[in-house]
Design brief:
Strand content: over 45%
Radius of gyration: 13 Å
Helix content: under 10%
Shape: globular
Largest sheet: 7 strands, mixed
Structural class: mainly beta
Oligomer: single chain
Length: 127
């Protein structure tokens, strides 16, 4: 499966951005997809994840994103979205989309080591 992110850019603090992740190739057996972010010199951080198979649609968030970010999926286009509201300067990072085929317990959904498929990333800058 190939993943391509889009929608990054520059936003003012308090503003919003919506990221998209388009999946192509053999997507029928994807189990879950997630968003991660990374700033230079720091580890990749889990942002949000969603099951694309049972339990379809269940989503999970890092504590610092709850209430501000929303992950969703359009199954007809195999696209996952990340709606980011009330942006803060500390949200500045490269945002990556990831996918996994194997079943994964929810406790591992925001661990980058659980994912084998990654997009190239899209930069988000909040000033």
């Amino acid at each position: 499966v190939q993943l391509v992110e889009s929608g990054g850019g520059t936003a003012q603090a308090g503003g919003s951005l919506r990221l998209s992740c388009a999946a192509s190739g053999y997507t029928a057996n994807m189990n879950c997809m997630a968003w991660f972010r990374q700033v230079p010199g720091k580890e990749r951080e889990g942002v949000a994840a969603i099951y694309t198979r049972f339990p379809t649609g269940n989503s999970y968030y890092a504590d610092s994103m709850k209430g501000r970010f929303t992950i969703s999926r359009d199954s007809s286009t195999d696209t996952v979205y990340l709606q980011m509201n009330s942006l803060k300067p500390e949200d500045t990072a490269m945002y990556y989309c990831a996918a996994r085929r194997q079943v994964l317990q929810s406790t591992w959904l925001l661990h980058p080591s659980a994912y084998s498929e990654w997009g190239p990333g899209t930069q988000v800058t909040v000033s």
